[in-house]
TrEMBL record:
Pfam families: WD40_Gbeta. WD repeats lie at residues 54-95, 143-183, 184-226, 227-268, 313-345. It comes from Anaeramoeba flamelloides. Belongs to the WD repeat G protein beta family. Keywords: Repeat, Transducer, WD repeat. This is Guanine nucleotide-binding protein beta g protein beta. It comes from the Eukaryota.
Length: 345
């Protein structure tokens, strides 16, 4: 066989393998985890209860984010304030007056030295909070470049921050200079949320109203893979603790689990009584549980392997807009339009 014939044979073999992989991705069993985990013991109940109630906001709370010390957290409310809390003592450490009341998101820097906010003013405001005695704290930097609302802010470190926007883009910023480093432009709808890969800040996910979630590598600047499967807006995304999988929550009333290594959905989480959208999700530290907040004022705790509801977490009397598991895994925070923040453990 000549060299050209060998090359042609390998090309045909590669084509067949690609077609086989595409068929498996499109028609594969999205409930594969339920099948493979049939012998694993189920969780039928959980002692998770409300341990702390953080009160002080005067408007709907739209976002919260834990600090890496698992003690402090920051919340953003349409009362026009960011509040930095001690979640254990319930004390307010700092209240920051924002230039716009229409705030939608907030984020804590990994160092704990900065917080950021964004909203309908299309600006990401970054605050240096090392001096918590300053009651009239002004933004250290205002990052202005999006043409739509800011939906999510996530720090890579004290020098760089990612933002997502209703203008269908994500932007990586240099905080010190206030300039754009890279724009990420592949979505066809509002980008609603960001998640940075644990242990590798070069990789992040974006969830969008175009019904997809995209995987990006900051070094390449391009979309590495697009994950489909939802029938409506994807509002939220969170990496699984090991970084190999991720969860999503959508207005189609389902949460899904995707495996990045095979580029496919491997489980979903819903039942007939859930008729509303999901606003926020996060995983337990072990990865066994998925927590999701809903428009029906409740949060659900799901068994990731079994795809079964473990418990309904009732306590808020309005839409639960944001939730997050503390980095040490000991607590869950939920924030709501009822103006309250609850700590569960």
């Amino acid at each position: 066989m000549s060299l050209s014939q060998q090359i042609e044979e390998k090309k045909n073999e590669l084509k067949l393998l690609k077609e086989e992989l595409a068929n498996k991705r499109s028609g594969g069993n999205s409930l594969i985890l339920r099948t493979t985990s049939s012998d694993v013991q189920s969780f039928n109940s959980s002692p998770l209860k409300i341990r702390r109630n953080l009160t002080g906001h005067l408007g709907k709370i739209y976002g919260m984010h834990w600090a890496t010390d698992s003690t402090k957290l920051v919340s953003a409310s349409q009362d026009g304030r960011l509040i930095v809390w001690n979640a254990k003592s319930t004390n307010k450490l700092l209240a920051i007056a924002l230039r716009s009341n229409w705030v939608m998101t907030t984020g804590f820097a990994p160092s704990g030295k900065m917080v950021a906010s964004g909203g309908l003013d299309n600006v990401c405001s970054v605050f240096d909070i090392t001096d918590t005695e300053d009651e009239n704290l002004s933004a250290f930097r205002e990052l202005n470049g999006h043409t739509g609302y800011i939906s999510c802010t996530r720090f890579l470190d004290d020098q760089q921050i990612l933002t997502s926007s209703g203008d269908m883009s994500c932007i990586l910023w240099d905080i010190n200079s206030g300039s754009k480093i890279t724009e990420f432009l592949d979505h066809n709808g509002d980008v609603m949320f960001l998640a940075i890969k644990p242990g590798d800040s070069n990789i992040f996910l974006s969830a969008s109203c175009d019904g997809t979630t995209k995987l990006w590598d900051i070094r390449a600047g391009n979309c590495e893979y697009t994950f489909e499967g939802h029938q409506s807006d994807v509002n939220t995304v969170s990496f699984f603790p090991d970084g190999n999988c991720f969860g999503t929550g959508s207005d189609d009333a389902t949460c899904k689990l995707f495996d990045i290594r095979v580029g496919a959905e491997v489980n979903n989480y819903t039942h007939d009584e859930i008729l509303c959208g999901i606003t926020s999700i996060d995983f337990s530290l072990s990865g066994r549980f998925l927590f999701a907040s809903y428009d029906n004022f409740n949060c659900y705790m799901w068994d990731v392997l079994k795809g079964k509801e473990v418990m309904v977490m009732e306590g808020h009397n309005n839409r639960v807009s944001s939730l997050g598991v503390s980095p040490d895994g000991y607590a869950l925070c939920t924030a709501s339009w009822d103006k309250d923040i609850k700590i569960w453990a």
